[in-house]
Amino acid sequence: MAAKKPPEKLTSVLPSGKKDSSFFEQVYDVARQIPKGRVTSYGAIAAYLGTKMSARLVGWAMNGAHLMKDIPAHRVVNRNGMLSGKMHFSTPTRMEELLKKEKVTVVDDVIVDFEKKFWDPAVELSL
Q: What pLDDT is stored for residue 107 in this prediction?
């Protein structure tokens, strides 16, 4: 009797063409591409990944990313340009300090000229 072949693994394909990565890994891949001096939102990343109702899940992914040196978690903010993830950094001011080093002005925890600094992965990473 021949051995039964295991079922084929289902894979998903992103607009970037990447396959077989967890949602958090997909979020991190997008975040790594945000240029210095620019910011994006949780919702913009979710929309790019084809799950536009998953902005909160993107936020969960970013909560731990501030510890990962290769992921610029400080460049991901809420849809209004507010530093809503600042409490997940080593100090409550660390996110703002990192943004200021990149010439992003922050006043009262909100990015000044958010629309000009906004980086939309759906536009910037389009195929």
A: 98
Q: Tell me, what amino acid is at 106?
A: V
Class of domain 23-124: mainly alpha
| Degrees to nearest 5, angle at CA 38 with 119 and 69 | 110
Give the other-Cβ count within 10 Å of 99's Cβ.
23
Q: Which helix (H) or strand (E) holds 92?
A: none
Which residue ranges make up each domain of the chain? 23-124
**Closest Cα partner for 44 from 104, 111, 100, 124?**
124
pTM score above 0.85:
no
Contacts for 114 with CB less than 8 Å, ≥ 6 apart: 39, 77, 80, 81
